[in-house]
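By way of example, what follows is a protein record of this kind.
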Amino acid sequence: MTTKKKVTAAELMAKLNADPEFVAKRAREEEERQKREAEYRRAEKPLVDELRAAGFQVQSAWDLVNTPGSYPNAVPILLAHLRRPYPAPIREGIARALAVPEAKAAGWYDLTRMYREEQEQRAKDGLAVAIAAAADDEVISDVISLARDTRHGSSRLLLLSALERSTDPRARKALMDLGTDPDLNKEIQVILRRLKRAKR
């Protein structure tokens, strides 16, 4: 019985790189990716210019995502640009940059309205992240309502952190009720276990 020789990753890459068809395809894909990035940079320029004028040294809204500390002066700018018809990856970046507590006072109604209306998955996910981060117990009923609405699909997973964080008894009840939702049940089981451990 002959044993098949194992091919290492380096050997496989060497073989692929020797294939002109593979090399040409990869070059085309890289060219398309660079073209897309250049288009996004051009499209996002008005936002970047406004943020820079306000003192934020950024190349993109994505630069604010995961920035330590808060940037309250950027929030109104981000909210104003979120309403514009940017390509989906840019709108997702703007929405995720709004995942700060200050976004609640500045634009809670806008965030929840845009989330309800958004059809594009990436932008919708970004809005869900912003809503979850900005939410507090004062608006938890809005988050519960959005999480219960199955029309919002799997993006609702990103709202659950607000329910987990909440001290309002309605949030825990909503988590229990949503435990049978096929889009959410796995994550909810994990959250409920965490909450149970934290109570001990």
Notes: The chain has a mean pLDDT of 90.
